[in-house]
Amino acid sequence: MLSLRSIASLALLAFSSTPQPAFASSDSAARYTVHHRFLPHPSSSTPPFIPLGQVSIKQDGSFDPLPIGAGSGSTSGGDDDTVADDDGKGWYQVALEPEGLDTLVGIEQDRWMIASTRSCYLATSRPKLTISTDSSVSTPSSKLKLSYISVTPFTSGSQGRGCPTGSNETSVSLPKTLEEVLLEIKTEVNVARSPSLSAAPVVDPSTGTVVPPEPEKSFFQKYWMYVIGVSLFLITQLGPDEPKSGGGGGAKK
């Protein structure tokens, strides 16, 4: 039979092993790993994601970019790997991995948040990564949004904000570290909207009962003056015609 001390020890051990929310306190922060990859076109194979860096997001919306340690594959390689060529139809993808996922298991990538953009936008612009979190929930990873836009649109030979149509080859410059990416954190607070209420009923002060609303008037009660006016006008138009005046005179005597 277990003693009271043993039961208390087992309860304390079970409580300490329970996973806590990502934002258990105002000083805690959620850490995410940022990955990226370039999908050239044409290509016979799909390259894997490469870690670009880490970002630590606090509950108040402040963040700290954290580089991944040396030897962990944080960069895309040497200087030769930062510039790639394709026919302008390739894609550049950025993925956000929540803390705690095993990156060695490929199925875990299904839980990453991925944003894509055409590779032609990277020819003359810096990538901008926008991460939106919902501070009204205890586990913001389920409410995290990721968007990727270009700071400056590609304008050479392009129409509007579209990709260039006159050139078939594009030189794409890839960022090597997270410091080369314009990182922006947006904190969203979802406030419940109050329901719209109808006007309060009118109460008779002498009796305290609700005054019944006036019955809706019929069509004739609303427009009886116009109906009578139109009727009189039609009656005057339907009267007998005036006799025409005689043409010639009588016979001479």
UniProtKB/TrEMBL annotation:
It is a single-pass type I membrane protein. Keywords: Endoplasmic reticulum, Membrane, Signal, Transmembrane, Transmembrane helix. It comes from the Eukaryota. Residues 1-24 form the signal peptide. GO terms for cellular component: endoplasmic reticulum membrane. It is found in: Endoplasmic reticulum membrane. The keyword Transmembrane applies. The keyword Coiled coil does not apply. It holds the Pfam family ECM10. Belongs to the EMC10 family. This is ER membrane protein complex subunit 10. It comes from Kwoniella heveanensis BCC8398.
